Amino acid sequence: MAIKIKIPHWKRTPERRKGGRSRGSYLTDPVLRTAVAAFIILSTVIFGVFAFYHVKYERIIDRRMRGPIFNTSARIYGRAEVVRAGDHIGIEEVANRLRGAGYREQEDGSTGMGWFRIKPISLEIHPGEQSYHSPDGAVIHFLGHSVDRIEGIGNNAGQSLDGYELEPKLLTQLFEGEQRTKRQLVKFDDLPKDLVDAVVAIEDRRFFQHSGVNYWRLLEAALIDLRAGGHKQGGSTITMQLSRGFFLTPEKRIKRKLIEILIALELEQKLTKKQIFELYANQVDLGQRGSFTISGFGEASRAYFGKDVKNLTLPEAAMLAGLIQRPSYLSPYRHPERAVERRNLVLESMADTGAITREQADKAKATSLNLAAMNVESSDAPYFVDLVKDTAQNSLGEHDLNEQGYRIYTTLDPELQRAAADAVSSGMKLVDEQVKKQRTKRVKVGTGSSAHYETHEIPGPIPQVALVALDPHNGEVLALVGGRNYGFSQLNHAVAKRPTGSIFKPFVYAAAVNTAITGSPDKAFTAATLIDDSPTTFAYGDQIYEPRNYKNEYHGQVTARFALAQSLNNATVKLAEMVGYNNVAELARTAGIASVRATPAMALGAYDATPLDMAGAYTVFANSGARVSPQMIKSVRARNGDVVQDYSTDSRPVLDPRVAYVMTSMMESVMNNGTAYTVRARGFTAPAAGKTGTSHDAWFAGYTTNLLCIVWVGYDDYSDLKLAGAATAAPIWAEFMKSAVKLPQYKNAGPFQPPSGVVDVHLDKVTNLLSTSSCPNSYNVAFVAGTEPTMTCDQGDGRNFLQRIFGVGQPNPTPPTTNGPARVLPPGERAQGPSAPPVAQPPASAGQPEKKKGFFGKVLGIFKGDEDKNNAENGSPRNSKPTSPGNN
Questions:
Q1: Are 513 and 662 in contact (CB under 8 A)?
Q2: What totals of helices (H) and strands (E) does the chain contain, helices first?
Q3: Are residues 204 and 287 in the same domain?
Q4: SS3 letters across 539-564
Q5: What mean pLDDT value characterizes the chain?
Q6: CATH code, 99
Q7: DSSP labels for 382-432?
Q8: Of all residues in the chain, what percent carry a pLDDT higher than 90?
Q9: Is 296:243 a contact under the CB 8 Å cutoff?
Q10: Which residue range(s) make up the domain with 342?
């Protein structure tokens, strides 16, 4: 059956015939058709642009998220601090150091670095799997503010311990490229709730609700900007801030804002809120410390409060959250009032959101900032960190070092580093004053009656500095300052080669004294050997060398001890010639001064070495003749604590221990009665040996029984400092050592102990022979046994009994002999007292002739004058002339 369908036909209606339009007629309207086409094209373009940027930034985000987000994951730790019974330290101080090392205050099931428990009079410590130490802990018992005793726990349970090593202090993580960022990565679960609530309350209250963009807040910020006529409000959410920090520049433009929104939406699709907040917490900038940017809450917590982020209190968390807005403007160190005001605003916001109660907010507002001591840049040891980084990268490779998250345990003592930074800071102010005085000149301006004088300071380079301190027995570098300001100059002067000046001279004298071991004892050089200190021209090959003493002052025949104490140039070169330039150069090279050549100029330190080189070389004297190479890294560990590589120092014998001790004794005289008098004048009284140095630069090298320190001061352009080491480097050394001996680990610097085969004897000041009761005016000298004088001053005086009684005639000294027994000092008696060496006067008067007694003075003991102490202590002959302290 067929079905017919009737298709209706449209007919023109009367209305249309009269000019009306139907709906279909709009499609033929050219204006409308143009508008529709434009809309379609614009929509297509917008969609295409959106799709392009969507794909582009999706790939960027995926690429960034695939690898490690933060590349600087290697951590650098300092030296472990040892707590011993009797140390003056309280429970809370030890607890704070454990908190700073990442220990938790109670056991929570996670191992990590470890945990501790505070009891009324004791502290229980339990290291974790990631600890540098073994899992064995300890209980430290306190009596008041001192450590009473220490007991082991675990495998050492019940055992009494002499000391316990705390966890090494985290110095920093390796910085990123040239940006020098300090960052300590933290997990979201490590962040205290108060910190998360504080950041959300002040930065993005709807963070956990929105999808990456808070459109109402963005619109509000735009309106405020329009009214203000500038960019006053950002309106960015935490996700948008993260987008900007990771992928964009901080410039405020509409295009950048749109891309920021796009990336934020992408991040919200790919990551959870916790992951986004964790990235933000590690990325946000929170201020500056020296030349380093403080990035993330982990680093900021240590920088501002000296503790792990998980141990932050409510007011501390609020202060860090407040810094996000303007870290420099709100710096709690420079602007504490601004920091407090901003912190209180954060607390108020937290109360508004219900994160804390009004009572908690008011209580937190009433607290002070309680900041940790401000870290001076040198205290952060940036130059040391650079050296450690280079050493570790050369050994392990940069990629593995960072990607594997290695932990680098170094030799740096944070407390000693702080003392070094303080000494350099105060000491360079004194140097600046001296330089300014040098450069300040009175200049005549005008002529005739209008002439007058004006004071002008001549421009010039800024003096630089280096300080290296190490343990002379194992070579561990304990403190290192490579310059006065890392931000100003990254050149590490601790490893920059400079002419060594007079701190090289002890190697000349050591080569001489070494003849007691290598040659015939009766021909050996000793501290009492006489050297001619007169103007001399030295020929070496076809070269002529004419050294001069300071201010052209010469002394004729002087003892080697006196020549070193007063740093006499001509006598030293003469001694090097007598010993043999090759012998001196060989000894110096063996000690680690590689650039030395066997020439007369060598004796005065004409060849280059770095302060670190000289520190290693001086261990020969301070370590019983054995040289130990400077060491900065002890161990590299994986994240889980497994050993990747352990480092050990190189040690080799260079001098016989007897020779090393004789040289130490001679350099004690430099400190007590010679050119280094400024060290004693500045109040450092512990037993010590050292040597000043002045060439174009200023040096001081010195050591105690447990600490060796080298200080250098000079100009980068090698121009002449024109200041003596005694006036520039020595005061820095003295200030550093005064602080060092106050620390428990360095306070036991006792007298130097002579090895077997060394004798200390009394010598008469006039004849340099053994003193007796008839010539008791003596000084003390150390000799390698068998090389000491055996004739007495009575035998060598050359005058009869009556002449000596009545002071008639002149003594005729006989050169010291070396045969027969010596008059050895009584047990315990030494040239320099073990506890309080005499503070020497400036050696400008050293060597003045003894004033004679008159006839009645001989009989009745009436003196016309006193003998100069410097001349006496060093045993200089009676025909000596004054020495200036600048001759060093």
A1: yes
A2: 28, 31
A3: yes
A4: EECCEEECCCCHHHCCCEEEEHHHHH
A5: 81
A6: 3.30.2060.10
A7: HHHHHHHHHHHHHHH-HHHHHHTT-EEEE---HHHHHHHHHHHHHHHHHHH
A8: 46
A9: no
A10: 176-375
